[in-house]
Design a protein that fits this description.
Elements lengths: L8 H4 L4 H11 L10 E6 L5 H7 L3 E7 L2 H10 L5 E5 L12 E7 L9 H10 E11 L11 H9 L20 H10 L3 E9 L12 H10 L3 H7 L3 H15 L6 E7 L4
Parallel strand pairs: 1-2, 1-4, 2-3, 4-5
Antiparallel strand pairs: 5-7, 6-7
Helix pairs in contact: 6-10, 8-10, 9-10
């Protein structure tokens, strides 16, 4: 199976701690749901820290990721626990109707090519009283125009890079928080927590002095596919993108957090 993204677990683990921390914080917004056990779906399992956390609290966890490397890391970290991990892009996920007490996805939606149907499938997968917990990047209103993902796409599609990245064009998309919330509500869920502008350790305004630190982080995570495809020219591409973002004042990822619940029967 061809991977959707060139993420490698050993690289991602170097920059993943803040993402895991925010995921665990978001899950606490489900109240006592984490104490009830049952079935838990983890979309974008990364290196498995969240899957292990909830499995140790009595959940049967079904975890998925677009990266084979991530799924293998999750399997190792969760060995001996009730965790099933498999490779599956979010666009292709199917959820048994009414099965899950919690469906969680942090920092994945912005990699999904179209989210309305995946969101509706998640909603159908919740049991009465169950929760969806979502966090993602690129959630700013469309009235603000393209953000950092737009700059990335423009540079990757420029004459300098287009042919070199013919098989690795960026697959990151902006989904405003209000649009995601609307799909969930139309699917019969009620919003429990709505935070369209979520503070995050990576949200602080950046300057050129931050470029070296940003380069390493984005090579391992956000631009991993492009950096891998370009080989020795990966740093050149990443620096060009980040410099353009900094000069345009578009370094804020515009994170959002939504927790929604299916009303109890």
């Amino acid at each position: 199976m061809t991977e959707t993204h060139a993420w490698k677990a050993e690289d991602f683990a170097q920059v993943n701690a803040p993402h895991v921390k925010t995921a665990l914080t978001a899950l606490q917004l489900t109240g006592d749901a984490l104490e009830q056990g049952g079935a838990f779906a983890e979309i974008g399992c990364g290196t498995g820290e969240v899957a292990r956390f909830v499995a140790e609290r009595g959940f049967e966890v079904w975890a998925s990721d677009a990266s084979q490397s991530m799924v293998e890391a999750t399997g190792k970290l969760c060995d001996g626990l009730p965790v099933t991990a498999e490779v599956c892009p979010a666009e292709q996920l199917e959820f048994p109707e009414g099965r899950f007490g919690v469906i969680h996805s942090s920092w994945v939606l912005h990699w999904v090519t179209e989210i309305d149907e995946p969101l509706r499938r998640m909603a159908r997968g919740l049991r009465p009283g169950g929760y969806i917990v979502l966090q993602w990047t690129g959630a700013h209103p469309r009235s603000e125009g393209p953000g950092m993902f737009g700059i990335l796409r423009d540079i990757a599609g420029s004459p300098k890079w287009k042919d070199l990245l013919a098989e690795a064009q960026p697959g990151s998309y902006e989904y405003p928080a209000e649009e995601v919330a609307k799909v969930l509500e139309e699917a019969g869920l009620e919003l429990v927590h709505y935070e369209p502008d979520l503070p995050h350790p990576f949200s602080a305004k950046k300057t050129m002095a931050d470029l070296p630190e940003m380069r390493e982080r984005y090579k391992l995570a956000g631009f991993a596919t492009q950096a891998a495809a370009l080989g020795d020219r990966g740093d050149e591409f990443v620096d060009e993108v980040l410099t353009a973002m900094i000069r345009a004042g578009k370094t804020d990822p515009h994170h959002a957090r939504i927790v929604a619940r299916r009303p109890a029967a």
